[in-house]
Specification:
Number of strands of chain B: 11
Number of strands of chain A: 11
Order of helices and strands of chain B: EEEEEEEEEEE
Radius of gyration of chain B: 13 Å
Distance between the termini of chain A: 41 Å
Number of helices of chain B: 0
Largest interface: A-B, 22 and 23 residues
Helix content of chain B: under 10%
Shape of chain B: globular
Structural class of chain A: mainly beta
Oligomer: heterodimer
Largest sheet of chain B: 7 strands, mixed
Strand content of chain B: over 45%
Order of helices and strands of chain A: EEEEEEEEEEE
Helix content of chain A: under 10%
Amino acid sequence: GENVEQHPSTLSVQEGDSAVIKCTYSDSASNYFPWYKQELGKRPQLIIDIRSNVGEKKDQRIAVTLNKTAKHFSLHITETQPEDSAVYFCAASNQGSQGNLIFGKGTKLSVKP
Amino acid sequence: DARVTQTPRHKVTEMGQEVTMRCQPILGHNTVFWYRQTMMQGLELLAYFRNRAPLDDSGMPKDRFSAEMPDATLATLKIQPSEPRDSAVYFCASGPLPGVVEQFFGPGTRLTVL
């Protein structure tokens, strides 16, 4: 089955700097890669996703890149702000199968003012 | 603003007691997932349903956990008997359509087993 590895487990940056979180997946059939943000004590919420027919997707300060050959994808946050502090989870899924997501273990991002 | 709801939000119980957690998916969503979140293991998929039928519960300890979806508006996760190692946050999530895998999470049930 699918296995998703996520790095780093913790990341601390200064406000205004960029943050990059990387994930690798094992199943070449996976074709959907969402990123979820979970603030302390809250539910995970989808912030951006990418499908395998696209190499990059951007939404304001957040971007995701996908390298299908290497089976890895990354989340990029530019001009970080204190409210970006949260745990970020990557996930992978084969939409042609049952559609369940396999999550990485999460990255705790701290943005220092 | 349609949201997944879960009850109870917090539950403290003693080892050996039965625990039932409930989830109301977003109206019209036909896929429901149960996850367990701990510091050590992250988000683990326990079970999921499509059109109320269980599709996969291989992530769930079968001897004590059971998941059901008695109707389209209610999913339940039951632990009997509960153990301290079951202490975690349990999330329910729902998704709209087959093959569309965006999931919407509920607020979670924080379970503490003493």
